[in-house]
Amino acid sequence: MEIREMKQMFFEYFGGEDKNIRFFASPGRVNLIGEHTDYNGGFVFPGALKMKTTIMCRVRDDKKIRLMATDLKIMVEADIDNLANYKDLKWGDYQLGTIYEMMCNGYEVMGMDMLYDDTVPHGSGLSSSAAIEVSTALCVATLSNEKKGITTPVDMIEMAKLSQMAEHNYIGVKCGIMDQFSSAMGKEGHAIFLDCKDLSYKYVKLNLDGKKIVIANTNKKHSLGNSAYNQRRMECEKGLEILKTAMPEKTCLGEISLAEFDMHKHLIDDEIVLKRVEHVISEDDRVLKSVEALGIGDVKEFGRLMNASHDSLRDLYEVTCLELDTIVDEARKIKGTLGARMTGAGFGGSTVSIVEADYVDEFIEKVGKAYTEITGLTADFYVTELGDGGREILA
Ligand code: GLA
Fold it and tell me: Which of 70, 113, 119, 322 has the smallest number of CB atoms closer than 10 Å to its CB?
């Protein structure tokens, strides 16, 4: 929605004057490769999208927080002194959970009227949650710093970490840092090569030699996702404990090479745990190879690695589903597709493909048609560029 339209809506809902209004925005993300590696201290290679959450906000002189969304006609009203108690809200829990986390970490939270405009489709595996969390964190931190007379810019990595903590503590999903980091730190035209063990990172200019990034949203919501996600995490921890009996110096799966894994994998007799660990360690290796391949402009090799990533997520990590596999299978039938894989947590959500520009229309038409025939659902397609991370918008 345009800023002008947001303003109109804001005053319609909240009344008052056009004074002391602020805008903050933070995007969703697409992960190019490196899935389910972040919470294992591994590598990821995401980029920020142009689709984002925009907040229009105005400080109040009491302790009320009022939330509205441009696409929902309900107002959520919360009391600052009672922020721990809104976990069961159908909408507003991510917002209030982040504000609460900020408060617990020493930020000063003031009463606010906040209007949210989300263009990242919810439940699409494109991190609509991180977009809400990071924009909210940035909003609270900016206002709190001003109140306290702090003039240094808001530390966006800190915003990513606090947003992740909100998701752990308030929402109950033990997610890794990838989504919030991408939303906070994205850079136009670049992907982020991030080592989740110590958060060291490098921007990689994405030169796809004329090929396009095509996202397909299955429109299958990842509803069962949360418990299955936490379950995968536990299986990885179990695998690490076993491998540590041979390599006690290792602190996470991300520190274990493929060669070391091959040497010690016989120690893992639980078949499920073995598959999970094999995925994580091989996926980490694929991220390194992808960054290398793109560095020398070898988009074809990158596509091959994307395909291998999806196959591993399907067969070893078991987080794909009929909808994701169908899009990926159909995508690979198109001549101009270099690689296709699911992106995000899985169990629904979206896929990402690299497609020759001349084949994008055919891709969307044929994949979309076959998808509907097989699943009865309609997919949405986005041909996307990578964008910037969270920021204040001066309007
Ligand atoms: C979700 C989580 C991330 C990451 C991905 C899988 O998006 O929020 O932290 O674990 O799944 O790669």
Answer: 322
